[in-house]
Specification:
This protein is of the alpha+beta class. The chain contains 14 helices and 24 strands.
Length: about 425
């Protein structure tokens, strides 16, 4: 099969790395790709938001199957356009992708179908939103309704912070159209985890659980980011908790979407809060997590490509996947200043040396090749990922590789997987 992966981040590098190993894959393309993806796929410079350009590329290169990585093109309708062109695609329709594209849509679906989530209300007017915050008190969570690259969530510990967030979003245009409506919801106590399932419209197949680190700095300090590291498996998502997540959250959602005439096909990523009463849904994403995909692909023993095709074909009912018992962990190296303004164009050295550490793969995110030089051109730039018998060993390997990378223009957290390590010790 001739495969096209859409995207250019660390998630897409991990997917390309896994798909390239499939005997079904005879030719692999990626649009637009990055310096690391270019080692396993032919990169074509078509932007992820150029939907006609992606469809034209798929037609021109006689692509058999398209795997869409980021949420933006899915919410904009890329899967629909590819389907109309007769090209098979992994990823939900625009209507189904509202599960990520509109937090209000998801919250209302949960309310209608009794899917456990935090209490909430949606607002477009500052005055009503402020009155609700004052009535509920803090801590409380304010979210931009639309896509905001993982940065549209404010966990406000005081009413003042929450009110300021409302003014920023509804009055200050901080997130543009994504913040024209806000969801204000209860602060949930517990431990966050990422739960993934492949969905074919009617059936769901659970994947390995993971846990990521949203805050920029050690000790979960600093601003929210797109994710500074992740590991799998997540001890908080043991077999019993994963079963509850499927039965109480994922499967009811799959059934609800089908019943409402919006069948969901693709990967469904549930951000969960695991508390005393069990799992509650924080939010859904309509794509693989970034950086959770990187350690998950390291742990996957099965060929990923037939599973992705089964999602598109409605063939998951009898499907299964095998996972390695080992632990995997990824450390995100980001440009100094991220998630705020950051410098572009700094050179990264030592990548070959770092990649020689046992069990390590380096997945690229915001990189560009310029001659023999690798340059940092994004906020999150590298995902240093390691597989090992224990989480402690995986962490040691990943940081050994990080320390061999010569990049003064970047930083990383040094405490990835601290919860798992603390639990084991």
């Amino acid at each position: 099969m001739r495969i096209l992966v859409v995207g250019g981040g660390g998630r897409e590098h991990a997917l390309c790395w896994a798909i390239a190993a499939s005997p079904l894959c005879t030719k692999l393309y990626c649009a637009p790709g990055n310096a690391g993806i270019a080692e396993v796929a032919t990169c074509i410079d078509v932007a992820i938001d150029d939907l006609p350009g992606i469809v034209a590329l798929a037609a021109r290169e006689k692509i058999d199957f398209v795997v869409v990585g980021p949420e933006g093109p899915l919410v904009a309708g890329l899967a629909d356009r590819l389907g109309e062109a007769g090209i098979k695609v992994f990823g939900p329709s625009a209507r189904a992708a509202q599960l990520e594209g509109s937090k209000g849509f998801t919250k209302e679906l949960c309310r209608r179908h009794d899917i456990p989530t935090g209490a909430y209300e949606s607002f477009t007017e500052i005055g009503k939103a402020v009155a609700y915050i004052q009535a509920q008190g803090a801590p409380i969570v304010v979210k931009a309704d639309g896509l905001a690259a993982g940065k549209g969530v404010i966990v406000a510990m005081t009413e003042g912070e929450a009110i300021a967030a409302v003014h920023d979003m509804l009055g200050g245009n901080r997130f543009g159209a994504a913040g024209a409506s806000v969801v204000i919801e209860a602060f949930l106590e517990g431990e966050e985890a990422s739960f993934f399932a492949l969905v074919d419209g009617a059936h769901a197949l659970p994947l390995a659980g993971a846990q990521d680190h949203k805050r920029a700095f050690d000790g979960d300090e600093g601003p929210n980011t797109g994710g500074m590291g992740a590991y799998s498996p997540a001890p908080v998502l043991d077999a019993a908790m994963a079963k509850r997540a499927m039965e109480e959250i994922v499967l009811p959602t799959v059934r609800a979407m089908a019943a409402e005439g919006v069948p969901y096909k693709g990967v469904l990523y549930a951000g969960l809060m695991i508390g005393p009463q069990g799992p509650k849904l924080i939010e859904y994403n309509c794509r693989f997590g970034d950086p959770e995909t990187q350690p998950m692909m390291m742990r996957l023993k099965s060929d990923i490509l037939p599973a992705l095709i089964a999602c598109a074909d409605g063939g998951l009912a009898q499907f299964d996947l095998r996972w390695r018992d080992e632990a995997a962990l990824t450390v995100v190296m980001a440009a100094n200043g991220y998630p705020d303004a950051y410098q572009k164009g700094s050179e990264i050295k030592g990548l070959d040396r770092a990649a020689q550490v046992e069990g390590v793969e380096i997945f690229h995110a915001g990189t560009r090749q310029e001659g023999k030089r690798v340059l940092a051109v994004g906020g999150r730039v590298l995902n240093v990922t390691a597989l090992a018998p224990t989480i402690e060993e995986a962490r040691a390997r990943a940081y050994r590789a990080v320390d061999l990378i010569d990049w003064p223009g970047g930083f990383c957290r040094r405490d990835i997987a601290w919860r798992a390590v603390a639990r084991r010790s």
